[in-house]
Structure formats: structure tokens, C-alpha cells
Write a structure and sequence with these properties.
Chain lengths: ~675, ~500
């Protein structure tokens, strides 16, 4: 048991040590030294995770839930937070995926980021990010979980606004951070609702006491679980807290791979799986989670068909795939959800890496409109893209096929209204195939663009002046973006190695769990979910066969449709777009979620701020409350002045505000 | 009976006076030695403090004015221990900072700095209501001079506003304090102002209520809390930086501490009667302070209004009236002081790099050439917005938990303040460190001299973030002990 704890601490602390080492000495290392140091730290972390796996399997099944405590963190007046890790099959599963895929992403970045002025800083942040994510999944109580949760948010903020002289990047960073803080607050309040009844923050203690503390369908527990879902949605980019994710594409491409594939966005899925004893006692909250996942998977799928920015297509695809996982873990298909989380980490990281290679060949341009015919210029990248695409679309025997179909199978098996989710899942699968292969056909097929031709002749395209693709503004290259060199997978062994490993995993990853043949993940996760009534259900053979056949047909027909539209009939998509203008407007504007949030949240708070600033502070605080009569005189005059600048509007608002405050007073004191 | 607290209390003043007697060139060094010794002494208390005891330690109790029942009584417990340490540490940091900045008339400057430290320590250590009032009012005097002599362009107006506001508060408090002693006493011979005596003699509910309001007014002005912060913008704009950092970091906490030390134990009926009112004022401070902080462009005022919001959280914790809220408030008082002082230093350093402008629109983009400064500010920013993982978060967590248990609706509205904090804190970080460099910005790295002031404070922030239990366990016994004392019934842990 001690070995297990040691391995867990090693896994967690190696990236932190990497961050500190890179921050302190990174600048003095020659060449790509910081990159190799960061990668080595991650490799050590992965080795620790493997060690933890071996040590864990050496224990009896009942003993496979080990708590490792470092010290008291906030252990006072009834709060019992220690700095504790919970090592069990679920957390070991997560640290394996996170540290493994992150190691490959680091390896890829060693070359991809070479030449960037911020090279050293990049690896310090990247290591910190992985540390945060490992802390999140290893947390043994709510407080440590929230700490890891917020660290991930902070690290993603730093990475998204990595090229911080771009205003688009700093804006995307603050957006991601603030939405994530909304999630943190949800998590904190959810914790309060649960803590109020169980009196402990410790996970295992909470789960043990939950059954006595909460009668079935308890309102406080439902509220608590829904608030936990707020946190999960913010981190996993589920509707309506998803708008930060496409903007997060401002970060360097390996960041997108890290955030969108292996780590951050899967945190919400992990959270629901971790909290399964609570969600099973609060079925309403679980249903809410499943519906959110279902809506997200459809909405994101439709957006992915319409947008033309390569990375954003993959980002919306991520949202959509996370929707499947949300549905799975909310509906009790825990192992299937975690399985899909793993396969998705493989093929989505692969797709992002391939996209990075392609974008580098385009000298930083990301628009699909400008790409085409790269098949011969970038054969390796193309191969990886196709493997990733087939896995994403769920074509057998690629990994995504097994994991996605298992989710839908188990959801269908629950019966009742879940058949809506079941059908929606297949509709989403069809959309997935279409947008994935739209991307592939547009970028790699057809007439080669000038950039592709240059590559075929052995040159690489370099733009004269680097511009921000979002604004067209000329970049301030002081901070590094974009580096003078572009690195494509074809020419960089480390990028090629990382992508090859992921491509292999994307192909064979699904074999861990072939229906009726292998049950590796089911068995491995069993000890975590031993108390679950929903775990390890066996759907009927008929459903199984039907599901697998349907999945195959959907995947292949969707690719065929994409082929028909974007390869055989190049003009067709424009005609369809013209015919369905309203729908297209809805999709390409991302269902207007940004505008909605802007109108409901951002503008009112700005308005409140300027009201406080320009009217209240001037008239009430400085005018009326400062110094007697002279104050009154001044207030009068400033009121007159303010009347010309919309003062009356503010005055009316002041009256309303006063009434609200009074009403609130009586409500709160009642 | 020991002398230790008296030595701690008067050392800064003694060194200030000594500085007046030596040549101007070395006055600053005398002050530095004085503040260093005081800080070391305070840390020695931290180490020696018996954290399992909930009662006053190192008590000094002498009759000062026998006829009026006023005692010279000092003591240390979980409520004031960390504020005393904070005061001593930050005074040292500010003295170090001031030495590098060559203020005019150094002897006088450092004398006022020393006097101010003694006044603050006195208010924190006093265990007698009259003594508290004396020191509390004395605090104003050195700050009046520090602002009036070494302040910014509009220092006269700023000083007048500050004095009017705080004087009104002080007069109310004086009246209330006298009334407390007199009304509580059975007869003239029985008069006593010692907290321990007053806590045994409860006033009638109606007297408690007006006295509570008088005290509250004085404390809320000092914090400052919405809507009594009218002196703050001008005051903050014009204070010399060391005075500003101390005012925001320490003096505001004395006010919060006053609620815990005086109002809750002495006026329990009034406290529970006005609980909702105080919570709503705190809530208004959070929302209003945050809204102001994310709209104003003056760097000092962003920090100033953010302090209004943070003090709102502390007040919220105090008036949750349970053990979690109180623990959170005590921890958060320490945290906020430890964070806001380096924040003001960084803002001053940024202004020096932006051609003297303190407007964030004139700053920007210096992180590339000044990575160490940017890193320091990043840590401070994350702590300011109480990111989980910082000790500030633990404080806020306990505060919100406390309020959650007593008034659910208020806790939920207050939690939006956490989101707003992330907006204004990141806004100032991005505007100063990221985006394109301002026209007059000159990117210079943190100098060694300024590093000596800022880096240790940031390291302290990181240390307490890793182990907040260090602070919590030292205040726990006192907070838990208050639950069994007469006076305010702090609800015990679940």
C-alpha cells in the first residue's frame, strides 16, 4: 500500500517539479533543453502512473481504495479538509490517460514550438497544467478537488493567452477563466449542500454517509448535484457554459490538444463518475446531466458542420464527444463513459496534432476555405488525419466505434425515455462522420493550394508578415508569435513519433473492450463502482447486434454523404447552404450563444458597473454623503449635469434597486 | 503579568523617537532596525503562542485611571495574534520600501511611521474598551500627517475628507464606549472598561442597539464599507505609497477586528438583531466594490475598491455568527493584508515603468521583459481573486460556508462576488502585463531593492497557501471558546 501511495505522489509531483525546474533554469538550457526537461518530467509521471497501476492490481479488490494524506489543510471547526489523495481504479485510470497522452503532447511540442520566443515559458505552463489535472483526478476530498479544478482553470488561462500581445488571446483567456470560476463557484456551493448533511468533505466518508443522510430524492442533494453539474459543464464545455472553448483555440495547437483531448474537458465527466453514489441518490440531477450531454452533442455537431476554422471544427467536435461521455456517466454507463474518454483522448489528440502540422504548412492560417489538396504534400499528416477521423466517426474496428457504441447500447438498454437519448446519439454519430470527413476532404482532396505545391517542391511557405487570423492585425512578434519557423510532422522526428503512437492507439485502443470478447475496463473499474446498482448491466444479444450494425451503417453512410457533397459535387454544399439559409445562419453563428450570454450577463454587469461609477458614486457617495450642505449643493449640480447624460434612466434604476434591496431584506430576514 | 506585549507595543514608537534624535541620513536605518526587531518579536510570539488555549495569553493588566475604571490591559489570543504579526511584518516591508524612495524630512516621516505602528498594535492588543478607543483614535494622527505632508497633488482635500469621516466615526465610538462602561456599571465605584468585565455585564437590549450602531458606523468608515467609503477614492489617490499599503492592509482589519472583539461579545442581542442588516451591507460592499473595481481605470482605486469587496467578505464571515464564519474572517483578514500590500507595491512599480501614470490604460505588455515582476504579480492576482489553492480561498470557503448555514440566500448572492473578483483581478493583470505595450512604457525588471520587499511577501503568500492550517489552528481554540462564553453565542461546529 505504501508503494501505491509513493507512486501516486510521484505521478503528481513530477510535473510540478518540472515546472519549477524549467522556470528556474530553463533559460540557461541550450536549444530545446526546456522541452526535453518538460517531457522527461512527464515521462517520469507516466512511469509513476504505471507503477501505481501495478501496485493497485496487487491489492485485493476490496482494498483498492487507498487514501494518502500529506498534512492537515483546513481541519478546523467541523471542516475536515486534509491534503489527501484518493488512489483507486478510477483515479489510476485517469492518471494513466492524462500523463500518458500529455507525455506525447509534450514530445510533439518539443519540435512544434521550437523557434517560439516563449519556448521555456510554454513548457513551464504545460507541466503546471498537467500537475493541476493530476491533482484534480487524484483529489481525496472536495476541497482538494476544487483546488485542482481551479488550478486547471488557471493553467488553461495562461496557455490560452500564451501569445499575450494578441488582444484576441487575452480576451479568450479571461473568458475561459471567468467561465471556469463560475464553475468553481458551482462546485463550492454544491459542496456546501452536501457537506451540510454529511458533515465531512472526504469523498469516501461522504459516499458512506450519503445513504443515511439523504432520503431518496432529497431536495438538498438534488440541488447540490445540479450545482456540481454547473462546475462540470464549465470545465467540460457543455451548454450553456461552453462558449469559452472555441475561443480557446487562440492558444498554440499543442495546448488545444492538451486541453481538448486528454485533460481539462474530461474533468466534468470524471467528476460525475466520481460522484456516482450521489448522483444515483439524486436521479433528477443525473437526468439533467444526461439531457445536457445530449443537447450539447447535437448542437455542437451542427455547428461543426458549418464553421470553417479547422481548429474550431475539431473543438466543436470535442464538445460533441464530451456530450456522449456526459450522457454515459449520467445514465450510469460509467465504464463506457470512461472508455470513450480514453479513446477520445487518443484520436482527438492525434487530430489536433495533425491539424497543427497542417496549420504550420499554411504558415498559421486556419481557414478550411484556403486549404486543399494537401494529400500528396503531407502524406504522414494525411494518414494520421484519416486514422483519427475514422476513429472519431466510429468506423469499425477503430477505437471510437467500440466506445461510442457501448455508450449508446447501455443507454438504449435503460429503456423508458432514454430512447430519446439513444436516437439522438445516432443522429449525432451521423453528424460526426459528416463534419469529420468534410474537414478531411476539404483540406486534403481537390486541387492543391499554392502552399501545398510549394511543399511538394520541397519548400515551406512563409508569410511575409504574420497576421492574426482573427483580426488581420499584424502580430507583435516580440513575445514570440509566430516563430520564424514552422514545423510539420513530415520533417520532425519527435512530432512524427508522438503522432505514430497516438495513431496506433487510436486503431487498437478499442480492443480493450469488445462486446462479448474483452472486458478489461469493466473489470478494472469495478472496485470504484462496486456500490453502484447500474454498473455492469448486460444488454440483450439482439440489441447488441442491432446496435453494432446500426453504428457501422451510420458511420459509413455519413462518410459517403461527405464524399458525395465535398468530393463528387463541389458546388453542392453552397447550393444547400443557400436553400437552408436560416438554418445555416443559426449554425454558423453557433446558435447565438455568445450573443445570448452577452445580453443576459455581460452587458447588465457592465451597465451596473458604469452606473455605480458614473452616477451612484458621484451623486450619492460623493455628493450626498460627503460633507453636509456643500455636498448637497454639489449633488444638486451634478444631478443636473447627469440629467443631460441619461441620469433619469439611472435614477429610475436606483429606485428599482432600492426596492429590490428592501424586498431582499425582508426575504432574507424571514 | 509580563512586559513582553508592552515592549512589542512601544518599540516602534521608541525607535521613531530615537530616529528624531539622530542625523537625518541615518534616521531611516534606525526605523528599519526598529521595525525589524518588532517583526522578529512578533514572530517569536507566533512561535511561542499556545494554540490549544482559548484564553488570553501574555496578559498585562494595570489600573490606569482608577477613578474611571480604565485599565492598561493587553493580551494576545487567536483573534489578534495573526493581525499583530501581519502588522509587524508589513511595517517592516513598508519601512524597507520607504528607505529606497527618499522621502523629504526623513526623521519626521519615520517618526510618524513608528507612531502609527504603535497605535495599530495598541488597538489590536488592548483588552480595555477605553484603551482601545484611545489607540484607535491615535491611529488617525500619523496618517493625517503622512497624507498631509508627503501625499499627492490633492492631498489637502483628501486629508479633510478622511478626517471628517473618521472623526465623525470616532466621536460616535467614543460616546458609545463611555455609555457602555457607564450603563454596565452598577454604580460609580463599580466602573470598569475591561472587556472581561463588560462581557459579564450585559446591557439592556435597547441600549445595546444604539451603541452597536455607533460602533458599527466607526468601523464601517474605517474599513471602508459601502456606502461609507466616500473618503476612500481621494484618500487612496493621495496617500504616499507606504501609508496607503498599510492603511489598506492593516487599518481596515482593525475595524473588522473591532466587530469580533467588541460588538459580538459585548452586544450579543444587538448583534443578532442587526445581523441581517450587517450581512446586507457586507453584500452591498462586495457587489458595489467589485463593480467599481472592474470599471475604474486607476490602478490604485482598482485595489481600493477590491478591498471594499474583500472587507465585505470579512464582514460577512463575522456576521455569519458561527464558528466557520469567524474562522474564515480571521484567516481572511490576515490573507487580505498579506496580499494587498504587495499588490500596491507592484502597482507603484508599474507606475514607475509607465512614465509615472497610475492609469492602467497607459500600462501594458511588460511581462516579456520583466518576467519576475510578472510572476510576482500573477501570484498576487490569483491570491486576490481567491483562487482555490490560495489561502484566501480557504478563508472565503469558510466564510461562505458560515453564511450558507445561517442565511442561504445571502451566501448564494455573495458567491457571485467571487466571479466578479476574477474579472477585476485579471483585468488589471492583463492591462498591465499583457496586451501591447503602452506608448510610454519602459519594460524594466524588478530591481534587487524592490525585490527584497516584494519577493518575501509573495513567498509568504505561497507558504500560507500550502499550509493554511498553520493559521487556522492558532485561532481555533479562541473561536471555539467564544461559543461557550457568555456574550455572543457562536454556534458550535456541527
Amino acid at each position: 500500500m505504501t508503494a501505491l501511495k509513493l507512486f501516486a505522489w510521484l505521478t503528481l509531483l513530477a510535473p510540478l517539479a518540472g515546472t519549477i525546474a524549467i522556470a528556474l533554469v530553463g533559460r540557461r538550457l541550450p536549444g530545446r533543453g526546456a522541452g526535453y526537461l518538460g517531457t522527461a518530467a512527464l515521462a517520469l509521471s507516466f512511469a509513476g502512473a504505471v507503477g501505481a497501476l501495478i501496485a493497485l492490481q496487487g491489492l485485493h479488490e476490496e482494498e483498492r481504495q487507498v487514501v494518502a494524506v500529506a498534512w492537515d489543510y483546513a481541519n478546523t471547526v467541523g471542516v475536515d479538509a486534509k491534503l489527501a489523495l484518493l488512489v483507486d481504479p478510477l483515479s489510476v485510470f485517469m492518471i494513466l490517460v492524462v500523463s500518458g497522452v500529455s507525455t506525447l503532447i509534450h514530445l510533439y511540442s518539443v519540435s512544434y514550438m521550437a523557434g517560439d520566443e516563449g519556448y521555456v515559458r510554454f513548457f513551464a505552463y504545460l507541466n503546471y497544467f498537467v500537475f493541476s489535472m493530476l491533482l484534480l483526478v487524484l483529489a481525496g476530498n472536495f476541497l482538494v478537488l476544487i483546488v485542482g479544478w481551479a488550478f486547471v482553470g488557471a493553467a488553461s488561462y495562461l496557455l490560452i493567452s500564451f501569445w499575450y500581445r494578441r488582444e484576441t488571446a487575452t480576451r479568450a483567456g479571461i473568458k475561459a477563466f471567468v467561465i471556469n470560476v463560475v464553475g468553481d463557484v458551482g462546485l463550492v456551493l454544491g459542496t456546501f449542500f452536501i457537506f451540510k448533511h454529511v458533515g465531512t468533505l472526504d469523498f469516501l466518508g461522504t459516499f458512506t454517509k450519503a445513504k443515511e443522510a439523504f432520503p431518496p430524492g432529497d431536495a438538498d442533494l438534488t440541488a447540490g448535484c445540479i450545482l456540481l453539474l454547473v462546475g462540470a459543464c464549465a470545465k467540460s464545455a457543455q451548454i450553456p457554459l461552453h462558449t469559452w472553448l472555441p475561443d480557446a483555440m487562440e492558444g498554440p495547437t499543442p495546448v488545444s490538444a492538451l486541453i481538448h483531448a486528454a485533460t481539462m474537458v474530461t474533468a466534468g465527466v470524471y467528476l460525475i463518475a466520481r460522484m456516482h453514489p450521489l448522483f444515483e441518490l439524486a436521479p433528477t440531477a443525473a437526468d439533467v446531466g444526461a439531457i445536457i450531454g445530449c443537447v450539447t452533442l447535437l448542437v455542437a455537431g451542427t455547428i461543426a458542420i458549418a464553421v470553417t476554422d479547422l481548429k474550431r471544427v475539431i473543438a466543436y467536435s470535442t464538445m460533441s464527444q464530451i456530450g456522449y461521455m456526459f450522457m454515459a456517466v449520467s445514465a450510469g454507463a460509467y465504464a463506457a463513459g470512461m472508455f470513450h474518454l480514453m479513446t477520445h483522448a487518443f484520436f482527438k489528440a492525434l487530430l489536433f496534432m495533425a491539424a497543427g502540422s497542417l496549420i504550420a504548412a499554411m504558415a498559421g492560417q486556419q481557414g478550411l476555405d484556403k486549404m486543399g489538396g494537401f494529400k500528396r504534400a503531407l502524406p504522414f499528416t494525411y494518414g494520421c488525419f484519416v486514422i483519427g477521423g475514422l476513429a472519431l466517426a466510429g468506423v469499425p474496428p477503430f477505437s471510437g466505434f467500440f466506445s461510442k457504441d457501448e455508450i449508446l447500447l447501455l443507454i438504449g438498454d435503460r429503456g423508458g425515455w432514454y430512447w430519446i437519448l439513444y436516437v439522438a446519439g445516432y443522429v449525432g454519430a451521423f453528424l460526426t462522420g459528416v463534419y469529420t470527413f468534410r474537414m478531411i476532404f476539404r483540406a486534403f482532396f481537390g486541387e492543391p493550394v499554392p502552399e501545398a505545391r510549394e511543399l511538394e517542391q520541397g519548400h515551406r511557405h512563409h508569410a511575409e508578415a504574420h497576421t492574426n487570423p482573427a483580426t488581420g492585425e499584424v502580430e507583435d512578434t516580440d513575445v514570440g508569435f509566430p516563430g520564424p519557423e514552422h514545423h510539420i510532422a513530415e520533417r520532425e522526428p519527435s512530432m512524427k513519433l508522438a503522432m505514430s503512437v497516438l495513431a496506433l492507439l487510436a486503431i487498437v485502443g478499442g480492443f480493450l473492450q469488445i462486446p462479448k470478447v474483452t472486458h478489461v475496463i469493466d473489470h478494472f473499474l469495478e472496485p470504484t463502482f462496486h456500490d453502484s446498482a447500474l454498473y455492469a448491466r448486460e444488454p440483450s444479444d439482439g440489441m447488441l447486434t442491432f446496435g453494432l450494425a446500426l453504428g457501422t451503417v451510420v458511420a459509413i453512410s455519413s462518410i459517403a454523404l461527405a464524399y458525395y457533397v465535398w468530393v463528387l459535387n463541389p458546388g453542392l454544399s453552397a447550393r444547400v447552404r443557400a436553400r437552408l439559409a436560416a438554418l445555416y445562419t443559426l449554425f454558423v453563428n453557433k446558435w447565438f450563444f455568445d450573443e445570448l450570454i452577452d445580453a443576459l450577463v455581460v452587458r447588465p454587469s457592465r451597465w451596473f458597473g458604469s452606473f455605480a461609477q458614473q452616477t451612484f458614486e458621484r451623486v450619492v457617495v460623493n455628493g450626498v454623503l460627503v460633507g453636509g450642505t456643500s455636498g448637497v449643493v454639489r449633488a444638486g449640480s451634478s444631478a443636473v449635469r447627469a440629467a443631460q447624460t441619461g441620469f433619469l434612466r439611472y435614477y429610475a434604476a436606483l429606485v428599482v434597486l432600492g426596492m429590490v434591496v428592501v424586498a431582499f431584506y425582508f426575504l432574507a430576514s424571514a | 503579568m509580563t512586559l513582553h506585549l508592552s515592549i512589542l507595543l512601544f518599540a516602534p514608537l521608541a525607535f521613531g523617537v530615537a530616529g528624531m534624535l539622530v542625523a537625518p541620513a541615518i534616521a531611516s536605518r534606525v526605523a528599519l532596525v526598529g521595525s525589524l526587531l518588532t517583526a522578529a518579536y512578533a514572530i517569536a510570539f507566533l512561535v511561542d503562542f499556545n494554540s490549544s488555549s482559548g484564553i488570553l495569553q501574555y496578559v498585562t493588566d494595570d489600573t490606569w485611571i482608577a477613578e474611571l475604571g480604565i485599565h492598561y490591559k493587553l493580551g494576545l489570543d487567536g483573534l489578534n495574534l495573526f493581525l499583530v504579526v501581519l502588522t509587524a511584518i508589513l511595517w517592516f516591508a513598508c519601512t524597507l520600501w520607504a528607505i529606497g524612495r527618499n522621502y523629504d524630512k526623513p526623521r519626521l516621516f519615520f517618526f510618524h511611521l513608528g507612531l502609527a505602528e504603535t497605535a495599530v498594535l495598541g488597538a489590536l492588543l488592548a483588552q480595555d474598551l477605553a484603551l482601545f478607543v484611545v489607540f484607535f483614535d491615535l491611529m488617525l494622527v500619523p496618517f493625517f500627517f503622512l497624507t498631509g505632508i508627503w501625499g499627492g497633488a490633492r492631498r489637502v482635500q483628501a486629508t479633510i475628507k478622511l478626517v471628517i469621516y473618521t472623526l465623525v466615526g470616532s466621536l460616535l465610538m467614543l460616546t458609545a464606549a463611555v455609555a457602555t462602561g457607564v450603563l454596565a456599571a452598577a454604580g460609580p465605584a463599580d466602573l470598569s472598561f475591561a472587556f472581561s468585565d463588560l462581557a459579564q455585564r450585559q446591557l439592556s437590549t435597547s441600549s445595546q442597539e444604539w451603541i452597536f450602531l455607533f460602533f458599527a458606523a466607526a468601523f464601517l468608515v474605517k474599513m471602508p464599507a459601502f456606502p461609507l467609503h466616500g473618503w476612500m477614492p481621494d484618500g487612496y489617490r493621495n496617500m504616499p505609497l507606504p501609508a496607503l499599503a498599510l492603511f489598506s492592509a492593516v487599518l481596515s482589519k482593525v475595524a473588522a477586528y473591532g466587530f469580533l472583539r467588541i460588538c459580538l461579545p459585548l452586544f450579543p442581542d444587538a448583534t443578532s438583531h442587526f445581523q441581517t442588516l450587517m450581512l446586507l451591507l457586507a453584500l452591498a460592499s462586495i457587489l458595489y466594490g467589485s463593480a467599481m473595481a472592474f470599471t475604474t481605470t486607476e490602478a490604485r482605486l482598482i485595489l481600493g475598491y477590491s478591498s471594499v469587496a474583500q472587507l465585505g467578505f470579512i464582514t460577512l464571515g463575522i456576521f455569519a455568527l458561527n464558528a466557520q464564519g469567524a474562522q474564515g474572517a480571521i484567516l481572511q483578514s490576515f490573507n487580505h493584508g498579506l496580499v494587498v500590500a504587495p499588490a500596491f507595491f507592484v502597482v507603484a512599480l508599474l507606475a514607475e515603468r509607465a512614465g509615472g501614470s497610475e492609469d492602467i490604460r497607459d500600462m501594458g505588455g511588460i511581462a516579456m521583459r520583466a518576467p519576475a515582476l510578472a510572476t510576482m504579480f500573477l501570484v498576487v492576482t490569483f491570491a486576490t481573486l481567491a483562487m482555490p489553492g490560495s489561502s484566501n480561498f480557504v478563508g472565503e470557503f469558510l466564510i461562505l460556508l458560515g453564511v450558507f448555514k445561517s442565511k442561504l440566500a445571502i451566501a448564494i448572492v455573495a458567491s457571485t462576488g467571487v466571479v466578479l473578483a476574477s474579472v477585476y483581478a485579471l483585468r488589471i493583470f492583463i492591462a498591465t502585463m499583457h496586451n501591447r505595450a503602452g506608448a510610454r512604457v519602459e519594460s524594466r525588471e524588478l530591481s534587487l531593492r524592490d525585490g527584497l520587499v516584494v519577493v518575501p511577501l509573495v513567498l509568504a503568500i505561497i507558504a500560507i497557501a500550502l499550509y493554511p492550517q498553520f493559521a487556522l489552528k492558532r485561532s481555533e481554540a479562541t473561536v471555539a471558546g467564544n461559543a461557550s462564553q457568555p456574550g455572543i453565542a457562536l454556534e458550535a461546529a456541527p
